[in-house]
Amino acid sequence: MAQDKTKNSEEEVRMGFFEHLDELRARLMRCLVVFFLGFIVGYFAAPYVLEILRAPLFAALPPDQQKLYFTSLFENFLIHLKIAGYTSLFFFSPYFFYQLWAFIAPGLYPRERKLFVPFVSAATLFFLGGACFAYFVLFPVGFKYFITYAGPTEVPLLTIDSYYTTCLKLMLMFGLSFELPVLIALLGYLGVVDAPLLRAQRRNAILGITIASALFAPPDAMSMVMLAIPLVLMYEGAIVVVQWLGIRRSARLAQEEGDTWEGRSR
User: Fold this and answer.
1) 74-121: pLDDT as tens digits
2) 156-175 burial code (b ≥16 CB/10 A, e <16)
3) Cα separation of 169 and 102, whole Å?
4) How far apart are CA 67 and CA 266, in angstroms?
5) Which of 91, 101, 112, 251 has an alpha carbon within 20 to 30 A of 67's alpha carbon?
């Protein structure tokens, strides 16, 4: 009998595991369909996106040097495909975050599942905010710095692929990096971390942010600092949010405990 119960429990766990795999596959397929539809739209919108992306560079170049070159026959076409993919990823990011939340929501308590709107909204806002920070803050300052770093006899010869790929990767990297406070706040709400723990690990967090900024930011001190400072500030802001969430959780637990004792006394 004990062996039969063990087999039944193992089968239930195994079935649950495969059910999760099926759900993950289904949600990934939905994301791929939406991504493909956005890819088609992004391909036709690529000329406008290219014009927007090259604006910070052309603002730092003299009028006679405002050109981008391609060194292979298919380079211009392939960069249009890259633009279409990134455009779909950014434009439909709320849907992708929704699918992520829908996948993890069954493992949460009913009260925690109510975080759907705040999570999707905050994740989208910080993801797009990070991309905008890269475009409006890093690009103008960074491009001007690197262009003027050259001597009077050194003329930049920028290719289409190298420039646009750099822009897209930086925007994606900043967008993902800016998800740090959303992740910390979510873990704080779920009770995985608290404000004292985050404060105790502040030095390690700053060290990790500095190392990550040095690895993923462009290879200069200015870009590293421009990525590290916002992340450190957002880490500090996440501590305040987690502390506020902890106070609310303690008040809620105290109220529930009081209601329980009141019910027992009756």
Assistant:
1) 889 999 999 999 999 999 999 999 998 888 887 777 777 777 888 889
2) eebebbebbebbbebbbbbb
3) 27
4) 81
5) 91
